[in-house]
Amino acid sequence: MTPRRLRYERPWLEHLARIWHQPDNGIWEVRGKPQHFTHSKVMAWVAFRRAADSPDLDRAARNRWGRLADRIHREVCRNALDPRGGHFVQAYGSRRLDASLLLLAIVGFLPPDDPRLTKTVAAIERRLLVEGLVLRYETERSLDGLPQGEGAFLAQHHEQVRHAPAGRFFSPARRAAVTATPRQMTGEEARDDPLIANPVAFQLFVQVPAEVNDGVPVIRHVRSA
């Protein structure tokens, strides 16, 4: 890590240490009341866990960030689980599911075979899969004031691919991507409306690793508790 990078990252970590415990509007920037979104907490954990594992920081800094990462990990495992289903939920105290929960294994929050994660993937398949493609969250429950019936969000579909046996979800994803846009480019959603199916570059950040890696998570798992 270069000195310049360290100079920028330290203030970010300090800022995150001050705000991570606050509610927010989540990765989807929902228009409802701020909540303690599981994905947001896990991304804070990622930042502190990576800092704690960095060989470029001194021992005191690594220990500090490691303690904070462990604190967040315990909090998420305590507050973000559905007491009945045993799976993770969209936000603390919620019963809703969210496709961003598929990232928990990919970033190493827990091993992919942890029962809490396997139950989460199974619940998402039951409640968020539509014709083999993944919705962002359960829009029919009036979370953000938007009309019901949005299309499947293809970025999340490719995250699902990385949890599944090879090839299980590839055919519907490719079919949706080809039919979504006149130029056969991957759109944001699997919809016929060309404005909604607008190609977006961030799809490649999840589509390419999913396809290249043939459905197997590519990031090393660092937690087992």
Descriptive notes:
The chain has eight helices and two strands; from the N terminus they run αααααββααα. The chain has 225 residues and is mainly α. The protein has a single domain, classed as Alpha/alpha barrel (Glycosyltransferase). Strands 1-2 form a two-stranded antiparallel ribbon. α2 packs antiparallel against α3 and α6 runs parallel beside α8. The longest helix is centred in the first third of the chain and has 21 residues. The C terminus is likely disordered.
Write the layout of secondary structure elements.
Elements: H1 3-19, H2 38-52, H3 59-79, H4 103-106, H5 115-127, E1 129-130, E2 133-134, H6 154-161, H7 170-180, H8 203-212
Antiparallel strand pairs: 1-2
**Annotation, overall tally of beta strands:** 2
Strand content: under 5%
Indicate the structural class.
mainly alpha
Count of runs of 4 or more consecutive helical residues: 8
Helix content: 40-55%
Tell me the radius of gyration: 18 Å
Low-confidence stretches: 155-162, 164-181, 194-225
How many domains make up the 3D coordinates?
A: 1
> Based on CA inertia axes, which overall geometry fits?
globular
Largest sheet: 2 strands, antiparallel
Question: What tags apply to this protein structure?
Answer:
single chain; 225 residues; mainly alpha; Glycosyltransferase; 8 helices; 2% strand; globular
Give a quick summary of the entry.
This protein is mainly alpha-helical and 225 residues long.
